[in-house]
Amino acid sequence: MHNDLEKKVMRKVTLRIIPFIMLLYFIAFLDRVNIGFAALTMNQDMAFSPMVFGMGAGIFFLGYFLFEVPSNLILHKVGARIWIARVMITWGLVSGCMAFVQGTTSFYILRFLLGVAEAGFFPGIILYLSYWFPAVKRAQVTAIFMAAAPLSTALGSPISAALLEMHGLMGFAGWQWMFVLEAIPALLLGIVVLFWLTDRPAKAKWLTEEERTWLQNSLQAEEQARATGQNHTSAWRGLADKRVLALALVYFGTSAGLYTLGIWAPQIIHSFGASSLEIGFLNAFPAVAGVLGMILWARHSDRTRERSWHVIAACLLAAAGLIYAGSVTTLFSVIIALTLVTVGISASKPPLWSMPTLFLSGPAAAAGIAAINSIGNLGGFVGPMMIGIIRQQTGSYTGGLYFVAGLLLISALTVLILAGKAKKPQTTELHQPHTH
Questions:
Q1: 358 lies in which domain range?
Q2: Are the C-beta atoms of 187 and 90 separated by less than 8 Å?
Q3: DSSP assignment, residue 434?
Q4: Which end of the chain is less congested by CB atoms within 10 angstroms, N or C?
Q5: Helix, strand, coil shares of the chain as percentages rounded to 5?
Q6: What is the CATH number of the domain that holds 390?
């Protein structure tokens, strides 16, 4: 009976929450990386050098970094529903304004403001999932939600490329149309969030009394066991935990890889002679493989109850792909290389994001997750910027791709050290989710 109830509740919660937050993340990621497609024509219209473009694309993450932790602590106080709606509406407005960039300064300012607007969204969702799903289920639901990022690239690439073809309509450039039309869903969904998301299981009218009680009890039991076992209760403890800083370093490398791909892949493919529409479809191939790799690897991680080696293997695959991408000479081989990178980075994320909530709870979890995400996301500033700088100095992408591969190797090494430091009695923390 208990087992049947668990299955029923989890099915209801999953169907109610996961498809919707996937849609939100899909739009978030699209508005974050559509700059890569805009660059195919915008850089020429605005006379942006590779260095200016790399800096502007990356500066998003400085805004994101500075406002991430405060944003997540506010979310904890006001509730996910209101705060996630605020995040979406403000980022929709800023994203639409990108169509009216006048030059380098306005490009930098708007990208920075987009980062400020989006701060708190991703860790907010990770935290929100912990209000609804027991730890043992979390890697898999996190993977399904995160699959929205490569899916966003897979579906968003052909859409962005097609919107570039609207060039000249009503006197606007194709990239301007792309920014305006891709901002509208964020604004609309921001309003829908208010009606669709429920802050906590206690408020879920769509669950029966029995279902609500079971879910609240099982999550509370887990929370208490963690809090008594670890005593990491205050937000400050979450920020001061060395494991949080180590995981932030790991995420720094994977973010550098993810956003180097998201922002520069269209131009890398373009350098092999592909047209905008061809790039739209070619850029989708690695992303589809990334979705499959992410879900299968997360399932394997949950089944074996192991996290560390799953993250290490994925980071090594991504690094190998980047090294290969830096040395290829044909369009076909560059797509293979980008596919390896995408699969590696996508697969690393669910096991990595299952780790912090294994040793943190309450405000410490909110602050710790936000710190990992905001510090880690600075990789999204450094990676794309270094590609731009090195490309401007050398005329080639190779050095920049090798640099990002090096960051991913550091990520793999950090997880290896973390796993080694987990004393035998505590090994469960990094290798296995709690099963209370």
A1: 2-421
A2: no
A3: -
A4: N
A5: 85, 0, 15
A6: 1.20.1250.20
Whole-angstrom distance, CA of residue 214 vs CA of residue 13: 12
Q: Is residue 103 part of a domain?
A: yes
* C-alpha–C-alpha distance, residues 339 and 285, integer Å: 7
Q: How many structural domains comprise the chain?
A: 1
Long-range CB pairs of 5-9, under 8 A, 24+ apart, other chains included: 5/210, 5/211, 5/214, 6/214, 6/218, 8/211, 9/207, 9/211, 9/214, 9/215
- Assess if residue 411 is contained within a domain: yes
How many C-beta atoms lie closer than 10 Å to residue 136's C-beta? Answer: 16
pLDDT tens-digit profile, the chain (436 residues): 567 888 888 899 999 999 999 999 889 888 877 899 999 999 999 999 999 999 999 999 999 888 887 887 888 888 878 888 999 999 999 999 999 999 999 999 999 999 999 888 877 787 788 889 887 777 778 778 878 888 888 888 899 989 999 988 888 999 999 999 999 999 999 999 988 988 888 888 898 888 898 888 888 887 777 666 554 456 666 667 788 899 999 999 999 999 999 899 999 999 999 998 899 999 999 999 998 999 899 899 988 888 899 999 999 999 999 999 999 999 999 999 999 999 999 999 989 988 887 777 777 777 788 788 878 989 999 999 999 999 999 999 999 999 999 999 999 999 999 887 754 334 344 444 333 3
pTM above 0.70, yes or no: yes
- DSSP H helical segments within 165-283, as ranges? 174-196, 209-230, 235-240, 242-270, 276-282
Write the CB contacts of 394 (distance below 8 Å, at least 6 apart in sequence). none
Q: Which residues contact 114 (CB under 8 A, 6 or more apart)?
A: 31, 32, 60, 63, 91, 94, 95, 98
Residue 200 included in any domain: yes
Structure token digits, residue 12 = 């209801």
Cα 111 to Cα 56: distance, rounded to the nearest angstrom: 6
